């Protein structure tokens, strides 16, 4: 695995501990913007009513889904995310690939010269289904 830099670090250059970042830095920002509910009165500083899905990790999912929708390779994305295999990546993000298969269809259409007016309808005498 190639060496990488952390997006967020402590003042000493170490990785930020997610159990500190989420409740003390991340969640106050979307709460102040009205995106997630504010912390309940009397709750400890680390206690939030917002679901875990509203944590900082959501940015990782956002990044991955944008990359797949833009047509990035699942193999490449799996490597970037540190997944053990592309199958893991597909398990999480396949639903973000609505155009999956369109490149293959377009390639075959181009090879065969297919267009809508050349296709025989199902009930046409030219159709193999007759």
UniProtKB/TrEMBL annotation:
**PROSITE patterns associated with the record:** TYR_RECOMBINASE
Record-linked Pfam families: Phage_integrase
> Which positions fall inside the Tyr recombinase domain?
1-109
GO BP terms: namely: DNA integration; DNA recombination
User: Is the keyword DNA damage assigned to this protein?
Assistant: no
GO molecular function terms attached to this record: DNA binding
Show the Gene3D superfamilies listed in the entry: Intergrase catalytic core
SUPFAM superfamilies cross-referenced by the UniProt entry: DNA breaking-rejoining enzymes
Instruction: Cite the entry's keywords alphabetically.
Output: DNA recombination
Q: Which InterPro entries match?
A: DNA_brk_join_enz (IPR011010), Integrase-like_cat_sf (IPR013762), Integrase_catalytic (IPR002104)
Keyword set includes Lipid metabolism:
no
**Signal sequence, start to end:** none
**Any idea what this protein is called?**
Tyr recombinase domain-containing protein
């Amino acid at each position: 695995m190639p060496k990488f830099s952390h997006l967020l670090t402590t003042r000493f250059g170490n990785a930020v501990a997610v159990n500190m970042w989420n409740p003390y830095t991340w969640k106050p920002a979307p709460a102040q913007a009205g995106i997630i509910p504010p912390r309940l009165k009397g709750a400890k500083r680390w206690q939030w009513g917002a679901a875990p899905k509203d944590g900082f990790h959501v940015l990782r999912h956002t990044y991955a889904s944008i990359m797949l929708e833009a047509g990035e390779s699942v193999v490449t994305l799996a490597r970037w995310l540190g997944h053990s295999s592309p199958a893991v990546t597909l398990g999480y993000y396949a639903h973000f690939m609505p155009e999956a298969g369109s490149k293959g269809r377009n390639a075959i259409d181009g090879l065969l010269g297919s267009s809508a007016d050349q296709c025989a309808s199902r009930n046409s005498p030219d159709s193999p289904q007759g």
